[in-house]
């Protein structure tokens, strides 16, 4: 699987989750099974322009939004940051504050070792 397919798939996942859709719900909108949507998001499916257009329409986005966060060579870091953002977005402000404080303490400890 190509790095570009993985990045596009991850971006589709991020945009889907931002809209509060499950893979099943997105699949229904584009008339594709959930397993196919999962394959796209993992970068395992080489999708056609027609399928990409259906996804863009179903997600109600502009086409550039699929590609705007793609960076060559830094995709793993961006993917992890996007995943963290998705995890945190489901938490309330108190939980996010606790996680922030813990993260800050961990980073301070890591920085002091260098």
Task: Describe what this molecule looks like in 3D.
The protein is mostly helical and 114 residues long. The protein is built from seven helices and no strands. Helix 2 packs across helix 3.
What are the low-pLDDT stretches, counting only 5+ consecutive residues below 50? none
> How far apart lie the N and C ends?
37 Å
Order of helices and strands: HHHHHHH
Number of DSSP-assigned strands: 0
Tell me which oligomeric state these chains represent: single chain
Structural class: mainly alpha
Largest sheet: none
The Cα radius of gyration reads 17 Å
Please describe the structure with a list of short key phrases separated by commas or semicolons.
114 residues, mainly alpha, 7 helices, elongated
């Amino acid at each position: 699987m190509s790095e570009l397919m993985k990045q596009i798939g991850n971006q589709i996942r991020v945009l889907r989750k931002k809209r509060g859709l499950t893979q099943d719900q997105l699949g229904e909108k584009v008339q594709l099974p959930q397993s196919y949507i999962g394959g796209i998001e993992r970068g395992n499916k080489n999708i056609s322009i027609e399928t990409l257009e259906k996804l863009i329409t179903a997600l109600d986005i502009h086409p550039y939004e699929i590609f705007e966060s793609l960076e060559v060579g830094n995709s793993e870091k961006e993917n992890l940051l996007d995943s963290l953002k998705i995890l945190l977005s489901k938490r309330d402000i108190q939980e996010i504050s606790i996680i922030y404080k813990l993260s800050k303490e961990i980073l301070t400890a890591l920085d002091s070792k260098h």
